[in-house]
Amino acid sequence: MNFPHDHPCQLGFGLPFEGNPAVAEADVLLVLDSDVPWYPSIQKPREEARVIHLAVDPHFSRYPIRSYPSDVVLAADPAVALGLLAEAVGKRVRPAIAASRTERLAAEHRAQRQVWLAAARAEAEQRPIGFQWASRCVGEVLDRETIVVNEYPLDLRHAPLAEPGSYLASPPSSGLGWGFGAALGAKLGAPGKTVIATLGDGAYLFSVPTACHFAARMHELPVLTVVFNNESWDAVKSACLGLHPDGWAATTRHIPLSDLAPAPRYEEIVRAFDGYGERVEEPAELVPALRRALHAVREERRQALLNVVCRR
User: Fold this and answer.
1) What percent of the chain has pLDDT over 90?
2) H or E segment at 280?
3) Which residue of 62, 100, 179, 272 lies most exposed, with the fewest beta carbons within 10 A?
4) At 309, phi and psi to the nearest 5?
């Protein structure tokens, strides 16, 4: 997490296969230590936009191929350089212009949040549970002492994270199944924090869950795992449709190696390791179930898992 969700200048996220409209509208883009700042096949900055890359290795010179435009390249540690940049800009900016721009962005920020809230509420009574509603419910139980480890399913538009280090997602070096083990590592490194792992069912299966649950019990690492169970391996499905949108798989809706049905009773797996497990099928039951699971984690010091049955 590198920018607080509730900051008035926060204008959303680069969603998979959607991008972020702010990228296409920007006059200047400051890219901070990001190897893939946007998906060129989905969206690009305007031709006249200026692009600045700031990183220890802003060219990512170890990558054999990387094609992103840059007008200015700054080789520096972002943690150090950002403070210096802010100081330099502060001496040049006119306060009235900055205040006007901040006011405009804040209004856009508020309007954006209302659209997101409406989209989540539209799923409030739908079965199976929608991903936006599930993400909104997870967001309702977050606090500043919680770390979220997300392997794909959590929609950040509905997760109000504000603290540095409170959000971890799959790095480029990881493979599917990274999330559960990373959550255990986060709990080991920050034992006083509540750790919630949000995993797709494919990510959970690829984590070797019995080994992870065993390690959680052995080392007394009570984490909450929320499995977004849509009986589908969406990483394969989305990649297939993205590469061949008019291909055989798209027209027949039969996408090989992406079906995870019939799904096992994931909530039973954690119970085998003395953890708390619950299956959730009703949208209205998700927040109460999350609170019960968090009680098991925080008060009973037991690991917990929610099997959230989601729409495919």
Assistant:
1) 81
2) strand 276-280
3) 62
4) -80, 110
Residue 280 backbone phi and psi in degrees, to 5: -125, 120
> Which residues does residue 276 pair with via DSSP β-bridges, in sequence order?
304
> Could you tell me how many residues make up the chain?
312
State the Cα–Cα distance between residues 44 and 81, nearest whole angstrom. Answer: 26
Q: Span 126-309: which CATH code?
A: 3.40.50.970
Query: What is the pLDDT confidence band of residue 25, given thresholds at 50, 70 and 90?
Result: very high
Coil, strand or helix at 181: helix
Note the maximum CA span of the chain.
62
**What distance in Å separates the CA atoms of residue 189 and residue 164, rounded to the nearest whole number?**
15
- In terms of DSSP bridges, do strands 72-75 and 50-55 run parallel, antiparallel, or are they unpaired? parallel
Taking the alpha carbons of 167, 152, 306, 139 in that order, is the dihedral positive or negative? Answer: positive
3-state secondary structure of 215: helix
Is the distance from CB of 276 to CB of 292 less than 8 angstroms?
yes
Q: Which three-class secondary structure state does DSSP give residue 294?
A: helix
Residue 206 parent element (H or E): helix 201-206
Q: Would you call 113 helix, strand, or coil by DSSP?
A: helix
Under DSSP, the state recorded for 130 is P
Rounded to whole angstroms, the Cα distance separating 21 from 13 reads 9
| Domain limits, the chain | 21-119, 126-309
